[in-house]
Write a structure and sequence with these properties.
This protein is mainly α and about 80 residues long. The chain is built from three helices and no strands. It has one domain.
Length: about 80
Amino acid sequence: MAIGNVVGSNIFNILLILGAAAAISPITFMAVNAIDIMILVGFSVLVWIMCFKKKNLGRVDGIIMLLCYVAYLAYIIVRDGGIA
């Protein structure tokens, strides 16, 4: 039920909120956004595989996701030229 709630909330935010914001002021799409979207899709597939494989998430899965987050955060810091 919680997963359905999160997925539904994300779909709502993407379709309604992003659509309304784009209707008010056009949103530019940069190449950096495409890379971030590919990373998002990759992480989403990784979590889906983890859930599908065992039907639950354990400590090791949490550590893997945390390390993925830290790696992505480091990528963003390096990409944007460091911490301001």
